[in-house]
Amino acid sequence: MKKIVLGVFVLFLPLFAKVEVAASYPYIAALVKQVGGANVEVITLAKGNWDPHFVVPRPSLIRRLARADLLILNGAQLEIGWLPPLIRRAHNPKVQPGAKGFLDLSRAVTLIDRPVSVSRAGGDVHPGGNPHYATDPFVVPVLAETVAARLESIDPGHASEYQKNAAAFRKRWDQHLQRWRKEMAPLKGTEVVQYHELFNYFLKRFGLVSVGNIEPLPGISPSSRHTMELIRLMRTKRVGIILQDVYHSPKTARFISEKTGARVVMMPHDVGAVPAADTLEHLYDTMISRLVNP
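The chain above was modelled as a monomer; its predicted structure follows.
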């Protein structure tokens, strides 16, 4: 009798086991939790207030990857400097590139800002295009559907639940999108300056225009000459907004603000980048509210 009970338990064990998901960034983890619900266990490799290009590959991250059933990354080479060594050292065949447990979300979106040529003279460029597509809230439903499809493939026993969760999420998110589009409408055509080309997708979606960057080239710290040229440009164009991310020093942005009168807007790029952006919905709420409410 005991053998029969044990056999039945083992047979149905996959139905109760959670899918272990490793997400490279917090926004991915937040999305997976909403789509996966009670059937997933999610760990996040990076923190929201870190520079997403540079994450220290700590041994603890290797251990997390070693037990994962699914690795979901932003892709477009955003993790190229830190994630590949972790994957190799984890020795987990489930999450190797090309495996069912390896999901590159950038494959589900259309990238912009693809460089004509790639060389060190152009700074730290991404050959496939700008990897910061997640700053556009309108791509999130596509990402949710992509995550749901992969979870269904890995865990077909809960496929109907993933489909239901994704549909419910899409319904809620569409309501947010309508509200965000309305809130951002008055800023259409507004010219801004960024520190790094981090918000290009967000700006394109809502019709704002980036006229310059505090970085002279991607990944290159601002020089005095470039800063003064940018100040002259902003005065000529009367640019009134500087978008500053949380992981670069705001010192230059504040200096430019003093010289031009432009206001510095500290913009979160990921869940947890600032305290107010504690959920996926609140990430975009915070980005938009900080722009529209001086």
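Residues 17-177 form a domain with the Rossmann fold fold (CATH 3.40.50.1980).
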